[in-house]
Structure formats: C-alpha cells, structure tokens
Design brief:
By secondary structure, the chain is an alpha/beta fold. Helix content is 43%, strand content 16%.
Length: 223
C-alpha cells in the first residue's frame, strides 16, 4: 500500500552507517534540512520516472526533522521542489514524529494544517513511543497514524495491547484516518492485527529496507 524513503550512509570504506549515528550530528549542526529536502526530491523524481515508464504509482512517505519543519520557508521549499516534477500530491506523504516534545501542540497542528492545505498527505510516526497526544486526533487533519513498534512486544500474549490497538483503530476509522502498525515481524502478529481491523503494517515481515532498484523489481509493476 506504500513505501517509506529511508536514508543510509556508506562511508569512504564502504561501511554502512545507520541513521542514528549521523542524523543527530546533522541536527546539531542545523544542516539536516539539506538531507530532508534531498530525500523529498528523490521521491518526487522517482514518482515522476515511474509515471513516465507507465508503472503503477504507490504512495511514498518522507520523514522531516523538527528543525526542518521550523524553517520559515518550509512550505515554500516543498512547493519549489514539487513544482519541478509535478507528480500527483496524493502519492506524497509528509511524515512527522509525534513524540518530539520540542514541537508544541499549537505549532504542530498549525504546520500540519498548512501542509494539508497544500495537498500533501500527512502521517504521524512513532505514535505511542513516549507519550500519546490525543489532541492531535481532535484538532489535526491526519491521513495516517503509524503506531510505534513498541506496541508489538509480546502482542500475542498481551491482551491490553490488543485492546488498545482495537480502540485506536476505531478512533482512526471514525476520523477517516488509517492506522498502520510498525515493527511487525511475525505471522502471528499479522493475524492478530488483521483480526483487529488494522489498515496496514510495516516491518520485517513484509521486507527489510532495500535499495530502490529492488523495491521497483518486487513492488512497482508495469501497468
């Protein structure tokens, strides 16, 4: 039902460096915006190429750092990049981390409203990782809620977790949102989530992070 653009770094020796080892440095230097907009442009370019090749388009989400969201011309830069490719915005999802306490409710809701007005989809990532902001349900026009992978711990035997997910599914559906569960690794977890009427899942059960070429080969078919 979609994909997420992820960043990996290979150093001069070819060693794979994971994001948690270099993203904090970019945020501290306040240069993370270059990486965020690079990823967004790559996604726009990819969707444009798929369309030209007659492939089936699928929504792709791009994560944005809190520092990038606070840029005075954040939306202007989004629109500038998008204007170079003019792909349908329904396939572009802006992903925001909910557990970032430095983004107060008022600002978070304001920036999401502006993103939404521009025609992009919005998802909240890692929901429930540290705290759950129910005000977002009430005041923000979200498209997707991504439930944090911590909810998958011992899901098969944790009736409380199952009840919570079931309630969240109901709330999301009543608000015309979809619920995606992250960190799904087993068929048992999949069966439970299907029974709870979740809209989708993300995790190693489906696939590990893979290069674009492999993603195209496996999931992006010709029309």
């Amino acid at each position: 039902v979609g994909g997420e653009a992820l960043i990996r770094y290979h150093d001069e020796t070819g060693t794979l460096i994971m994001p948690n080892e270099f993203i904090p440095s970019l945020e501290e230097a306040r240069t993370i915006r270059y990486l965020d907009f690079f990823a967004f442009e790559q996604v726009c370019r990819l969707l444009s190429r798929w369309h030209a090749e007659g492939r089936r388009l699928t929504p792709l989400s791009v994560n944005f750092s809190r520092y990038t969201l606070r840029m005075a011309d954040f939306l202007g830069e989004l629109e500038r990049i998008w204007g170079n490719y003019n792909v349908p915005k329904q396939y572009l999802e802006i992903e925001i981390i909910e557990n970032d306490e430095s983004l107060d409710n008022e600002f978070l809701i304001m920036i999401m409203e502006r993103i939404k007005r521009q025609g992009y989809s919005i998802s909240i990532d890692d929901f429930g990782a540290r705290y759950s902001n129910m005000a977002l349900f009430i005041n923000a026009q979200l498209d997707t809620l991504k439930l944090d992978r911590s909810m998958m711990q011992d899901l098969q035997n944790n009736r409380r977790s199952q009840m919570l997910i079931s309630s969240l599914v109901q709330i999301c559906h009543n608000l015309q949102m979809q619920l995606i569960v992250e960190g799904v690794e087993t068929k048992e977890q999949f069966d439970i989530l299907k029974q709870l009427d979740c809209d989708g899942l993300q995790g190693y059960l489906i696939d590990r992070p893979i290069p674009v070429s492999m993603f195209e080969q496996k999931y992006i078919k010709q029309k």
